[in-house]
Amino acid sequence: MKNITKRLLLPLCLLLLLTGCSSTTNQKSEDVFQYKGSLIGDNSAVIHIIEQLPYAEKFHEVSLETKTQPYGMTIMYENIDTEMAEREYEEAAVYNASYLLTLIDNAEWVVFDFEGHSYKMSKSKLEDWYGKELHEFTNENELETLIQRMLEQDSELHQLFTE
User: Fold this and answer.
1) Which of 6, 35, 42, 99 gives the lowest tally of CB atoms within 10 Å of its CB?
2) pTM of the shown model
3) What is the rounded average pLDDT of the residues 107-128?
């Protein structure tokens, strides 16, 4: 009986071990829009949103400005690939700011510090660029489609950072 148990237990343990060690990158990440309506003072919500955005693995820290209006945040990244082109930094700033300023009701600005490359995005500037108020977005697909459409237009991206 012990021999049969060992023969069944060993493959079962091996299966559990392999399943537990498998990569979770193929699993769908949580719906970031569950944080819509969050406030800048909710550290947990802000961090959860950042963890769903590009370069989350490079996220180092966030500093929230909650004492004086307009409220905002500075997000610092580290160990960024030094070969990244300026456009990649700009796209990351637009993409991440779009989500953060859409989901966090009282956030008016965000600064991204990519180890020496700093970009400040304001809610009003993004809303002017998109031609739509950020609070109107109700789901990830809608926001994602607009971001991608605008980022495909080089002149539009350049305009955002030169004004």
Assistant:
1) 6
2) 0.80
3) 95
